[in-house]
């Protein structure tokens, strides 16, 4: 079989990808949300994100304002942290935290018979700064955020709630959408560290472009 | 709406997830390949991986042998590196390399009017050790691996070829499947850093369990 490669300049690969995505969208999408939706589609080559992403009222303006004011991002995996454009975030004063591998988080989880993801959210809630949460893996992290918000122990600037999987994933996302908090959620089972990083970066690139 | 959480012990969440995946498989799958297929489905909550994953002859035995003999893993993103269980790999003597952020790779890419992914494969080809490549993002990395193999400049133990996207992604995977090299490839557009890490870990856990 003869395989024909498309000739695209290195700097143009991303633009060309977004053109293809644009041309294959199943229907029109909101222009303010489009960069987020298209970057989620891009990171998984999965057009399901066109319809499963849910946005709270005015979330983009709120999220961009938070980033401009120096909000930091807390993640539930090292992969999300690795995927976020930390140089862009730093321009606004924010940094990325992931507490999953911390010894005190491991001990807290063991002691409380809980998950590290849950304990890492407790640790994050102690940070005295504006926070965005980018959750790409653990529904238990999202459930703990819900509890902390309900108990008035945490007031996040934004929750990117896109854990992936089969146990309590669907439910954890529905819980977050019942909170009075700005959110971007991938309804259903789908999501992932890549999607959490992609949505974070889409917001950062809106401020750059 | 009342949201009911499933009560699952932290240590049992992964097992329960795999039970659910097993129960929803669209058809029977090969028992030796099952741990790889199921972990790919798990990482993206996407059953497309049941049918898009392609395996070269006897690839599992060859891959496990390579890991046991201390093969290292080269990735095309920091996210894949972050996602691989490095402690498990280290037990067998291997480590994970990602050259994407290296200054010499950036310079080489600029000089050659190429991508950093491509240059990072050239750098990896200089390593004098058995190598597994886990490519979750860049088709240009996969295309460069194809060229290096065709030129007898590289003989990988295994290529995990699961870049994601829209420009030359489909083609790059077909090229690898034409090489005389052990491969695990996600045919089509889908894949990602999460999938590359999941397949790597599935192999590592076969040796652990």
From TrEMBL, chains A, B:
Annotated family: Belongs to the CobH/CbiC family.
Gene Ontology terms: biological process: cobalamin biosynthetic process
Source domain of life: Archaea
Protein name in the entry: Precorrin-8X methylmutase /cobalt-precorrin 8 methylmutase
Organism: Methanobrevibacter olleyae
Cobalamin biosynthesis precorrin-8X methylmutase CobH/CbiC domain ranges (all copies): 12-206
Pathway: Cofactor biosynthesis; adenosylcobalamin biosynthesis
Keyword set, alphabetical order: Cobalamin biosynthesis, Isomerase
GO molecular function: precorrin-8X methylmutase activity
A Pfam family: CbiC
């Amino acid at each position: 079989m003869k395989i024909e490669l498309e000739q695209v300049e290195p700097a143009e690969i991303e633009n060309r990808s977004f053109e293809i995505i644009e041309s294959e969208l199943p229907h029109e999408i909101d222009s303010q949300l489009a960069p987020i939706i298209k970057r989620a589609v891009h990171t998984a080559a999965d057009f399901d994100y066109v319809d499963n992403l849910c946005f709270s009222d005015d979330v983009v303006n709120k999220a961009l304002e938070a980033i401009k004011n120096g909000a930091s991002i807390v993640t539930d995996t090292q992969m999300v942290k690795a995927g976020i454009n930390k140089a862009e975030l730093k321009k606004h004063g924010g940094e990325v935290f992931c507490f999953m591998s911390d010894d005190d988080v491991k001990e807290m989880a063991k002691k409380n018979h809980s998950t590290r993801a849950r304990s890492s959210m407790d640790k994050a809630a102690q940070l005295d700064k504006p926070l965005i949460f980018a959750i790409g893996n653990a529904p238990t992290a999202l459930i703990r955020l819900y509890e902390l918000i309900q108990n008035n122990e945490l007031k996040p600037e934004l929750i990117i709630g896109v854990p992936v999987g089969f146990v309590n994933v669907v439910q954890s996302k529905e819980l977050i959408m019942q909170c009075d908090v700005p959110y971007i959620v991938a309804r259903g089972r789908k999501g992932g560290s890549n999607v959490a990083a992609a949505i974070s970066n889409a917001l950062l690139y809106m401020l750059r472009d």
